[in-house]
Q: What sequence folds into this?
């Protein structure tokens, strides 16, 4: 999976993802943001992933997905600045059994994004500078 990020202007960036554009940042300190910050996009990615895994589980088990929402509360930590913890809350308007709740929890716990965070992925940086 490769995603390219391009600077548009000032501190405003664009990610091209499978034909979709995601804008983050602002032109300068005097302009309003034109999209969510990278950290909020990260938190949203976790919630979206959990929501998808929940929807798949509910569909596979013919359980109503009415009112399905996911709320992610991210708590900041310092040194280095980062998210220190996530609290993920899944809400449904359906009446489901304890067995289904257990299965649903097992399913959402396998979310790709959450597994990535849990696995402490290796990050390698490379800088390429070209003379004009």
A:
């Amino acid at each position: 999976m490769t995603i390219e990020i391009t600077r548009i202007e000032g501190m405003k960036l664009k990610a091209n993802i499978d034909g979709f554009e995601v804008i983050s940042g602002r032109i300068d300190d005097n302009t309003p943001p034109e999209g969510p910050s990278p950290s909020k996009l990260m938190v949203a990615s976790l919630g979206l992933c959990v929501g998808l895994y929940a929807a798949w589980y509910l569909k596979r088990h013919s359980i109503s997905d009415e009112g399905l929402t996911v709320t992610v509360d991210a708590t900041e930590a310092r040194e280095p600045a980062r998210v220190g913890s996530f609290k993920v809350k899944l809400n449904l308007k359906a009446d489901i059994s304890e067995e289904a709740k257990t299965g649903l929890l097992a399913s959402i716990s396998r979310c790709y994004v959450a597994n990535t965070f849990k696995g402490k992925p290796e990050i390698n940086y490379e800088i390429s500078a070209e003379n004009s």
User: Anything to note?
Assistant: Residues 75 and 117 are 15 Å apart (CA to CA).
